[in-house]
Structures are given as C-alpha cells and as structure tokens.
Amino acid sequence: MKRSVWISIALLLVVLASSLVWPAAAWLNSKDIDYEAVEKAWETGDMDEELKPEVDLMHKRRQTEERQKRPNFVGDVGIPQTMLILFKDSALPDFVRLYPEIPDPTHAIAEMWKSMLFNGGIEAEFFELNEAPDKLLVKVQRGWLAEDLVDFLVNQEQVKEVLWDYETYYPPGTDEAAMEKEKERLRQEAIAKEKLKQKKKKKKAAKTEL
Predict the structure, then answer these.
(1) Boundaries of every domain in the chain
(2) Which H or E element spans position 138?
(3) Are 140 and 80 in contact (CB under 8 A)?
(4) In the record, which residues are listed under signal peptide (predicted)?
(5) Which one in 8, 33, 87, 149 has a CA-CA gap of 20 to 30 Å to 40?
(6) What is the CA radius of gyration of the chain?
(7) Is 161 helix (H, G, I), strand (E, B) or coil?
(8) Which one, of 117, 118, 162, 170, lies nearest residue 137 by Cα?
(9) Backbone dihedral angles phi then psi of residue 186, each to the nearest 5 degrees
(10) What are phi and psi of 86, to 5 degrees?
(11) How many Cβ atoms from other residues are within 10 Å of residue 96's Cβ?
(12) What topology does CATH give the domain 66-169?
C-alpha cells in the first residue's frame, strides 16, 4: 500500500515538472521566432554602445573648436539644429521631366538626400511643408554636424538657398550680393502691393459709407 502511494506521488511530481518545463521548451523551439531579427537587434544595440564613446569625443572636440572660434560662445553644439531649404524654380519641373513615374518629387528628393547623408555618417530628418512643395525643413540631432549638413545641401543641384541660424547659405559660385539685392527688390515690391491694396480697400469703404 505504501509503495503504491509513493509511486503515485512520484508520478505526480514528474507530471508537474513536465508542465513547468514545457512552456520554456516550446518557446525555445518555436518556429515563430525570427532569430535573424533578434540577432540584428542585438547587433544594433552593440553598435550603439560601441559608437557612443566616439560620438561623445566628437561632441567635445566640436565644442572646443566652436569656443576657439567664438570666445563668447556659451551654447552647446550638441543641440539639434533645424534649417529651411528652398529649391530652385527649375528643380521640381526638371525632376518630374526626368522621373515622370514618381508622383511626389519633393518627397523623393528628401528621401534621396536622407539616404546620401546617412551613407556619409549624418542622420537627418526631412519634413515637407503643406502647400509649399518647393521647400523642406531638415533637422539634425547632432548639432555639431550642422555645418557639414549645410555644405552638403548647398552642393545639391536642386537647392537655391539654405536658411540656418539667421544666416542664408548659397550654392558655390552664387552672386550673393545680387541675390540679396533681388530679395530686397521683391520685398519692397510686396510692401508696395500691400499698401496699394489697403488704399483701395479704404477707398471702397469710404464709398460704401456715402
């Protein structure tokens, strides 16, 4: 009798142990696990950790360089930087003519630049502006790469100018004085049009009152 009781207890323990081990064993042998994706995720994490000291070193070096150039500089070159890109008038029409199958040339150009920059070691985010297909905003998280980003952008055939940190940057060979003069002419022209518009509006209002 006692022997049969002990056998029953032993069998019960085996069953319980099996039920506890099975879920783990099933997970480890599951065909649903994408081991390649897991491995890539681990590799990415390893790369981030490996690159961090280099990124920190670059940050410190650029910070020192900036303070040497500007003794009164008290900011941080690591702060993310944003700039506005203006396309040439011919940029989008030329792109559409070359690639008529691409529905959104602004987006395509942004993606092309993003890929080129990434291959060159600069991670940048591009943002399209509503109702302004000839403009793009671009943001770089590592602020000390902003000058490199500007250098890249002004050398792209589609770019007319880049606005960053209250400065305007033009492609090499641009007559900057002529560009600024033209901007001022257009500004004065816009002011004159607005004044004329307001004058007509007041005159119309005066007639209505009579």
Answers:
(1) 66-169
(2) strand 132-140
(3) yes
(4) 1-26
(5) 149
(6) 32
(7) strand
(8) 162
(9) -65, -35
(10) -110, 130
(11) 14
(12) Alpha-Beta Plaits (3.30.70)
What are 135's strand-pairing partners?
Answer: 86
Which tokens in the block code for residue 159? Answer: 């770019």
Q: Show pLDDT as tens, one digit a residue, over the chain (210 residues).
A: 444 444 444 444 444 444 433 333 333 333 444 445 445 444 444 445 555 677 677 777 777 777 777 666 656 777 898 999 999 999 999 999 999 999 999 999 999 999 999 999 999 999 999 889 999 999 999 888 888 999 999 999 999 999 998 889 999 988 778 878 887 888 888 898 888 888 888 877 777 766
Q: Which residues contact residue 111 at a Cβ distance below 8 angstroms, ignoring those fewer than 6 apart?
A: 126
Which ranges constitute the DSSP H helices of the chain?
A: 2-28, 35-69, 91-98, 105-119, 146-154, 176-209
For residue 125, give both structure tokens.
Answer: 């985010």
| Rounded CA separation 104/108 (Å) | 6
167: phi then psi, degrees, rounded to nearest 5: -125, 155
What's the token pair of residue 154? 């002004």
Which of 132, 163, 133 has its CA nearest to residue 150?
163
Place of tokens 């099933």: 26
- Reported pTM: 0.61
First vs last C-alpha separation in the chain: 120
